[in-house]
Amino acid sequence: MPGSRACACYGRMRLRDRLVLWARRLTGRVPGWRYRGQSRPPFAAEPGPGQESVWDYPRPPCLAPDERRVEVRAAGAVLARTHRAIRVLETASPPTFYIPPDDVDMQRLQVVPGASFCEWKGAATYWGLRDDPDAGFVGWSYEHPLPAFAAIRGHLAFYPDRLECRVNGEIARGQGGRFYGGWITSEVVGPFKGEPGTGDW
């Protein structure tokens, strides 16, 4: 059951990382969130048996190893398949699945232009399909993550609205917003960050 999978809170940030985060807050580069997982807002959906509420996830986020079959397909062919995914769980967002590079067909991917910085994880590298370079980026990784998230170093995450992403056979839906990459499945309830007006969630 989803609720039984332990969440290893690597989100306990070192002093250096906290100082970096607070500097970004002071310069206005990080929004002031209203919710951090301590309590659900009144508009949150009630999870049923075997479900998780994204409003119970913490902020800073935590990492949860996942042994279920996670699969990603591009143009009908398997691009990644693993039983060693790591979920990143953060308040208001559906889980993001990070897949070890050994379980990804890296020959089909190439680094593409793009840059972003996550206040928790660090600078992202973006990946596109080698045989479809005009498609833009379909996934990302953190090649040099901040220390609290070293466990996902080099792991790849993929956008379920750009590729076919499955968890134990269930096709995941994409999270709203241009850059969010959460996987929405029947095991999670929201509402989810990413839609207009949710920036302070």
Chain-wise SSE layout:
Layout (H helix, E strand, L loop, with lengths): L14 H12 L25 E2 L8 E5 L3 E5 L2 E6 L2 E6 L2 E6 L10 E4 L4 E2 L3 E2 L1 E5 L7 E5 L14 E3 L5 E4 L2 E2 L1 E2 L8 E2 L3 E2 L12
Parallel strand pairs: 1-17
Antiparallel strand pairs: 2-5, 3-4, 3-13, 5-6, 7-10, 8-9, 10-11, 11-12, 13-14, 15-16
Question: Please, could you describe this protein's structure?
Answer:
It is a single chain. The chain has one helix at residues 15-26; strands at 52-53, 62-66, 70-74, 77-82, 85-90, 93-98, 109-112, 117-118, 122-123, 125-129, 137-141, 156-158, 164-167, 170-171, 173-174, 183-184, 188-189. It has 201 residues and is mainly beta. The protein has a single domain, classed as Beta Complex (Metal Binding Protein, Guanine Nucleotide Exchange Factor, Chain A). The strands form six sheets. Strands 4-3-13-14 form a four-stranded antiparallel beta sheet, with no helix packed on it. Strands 7-10-11-12 form a four-stranded antiparallel beta sheet, with no helix packed on it. A three-stranded antiparallel beta sheet has the order 2-5-6, with no helix packed on it. A hairpin with a 7-residue loop joins strand 10 (125-129) and strand 11. The longest helix is centred in the N-terminal third of the chain and has 12 residues, at 15-26.
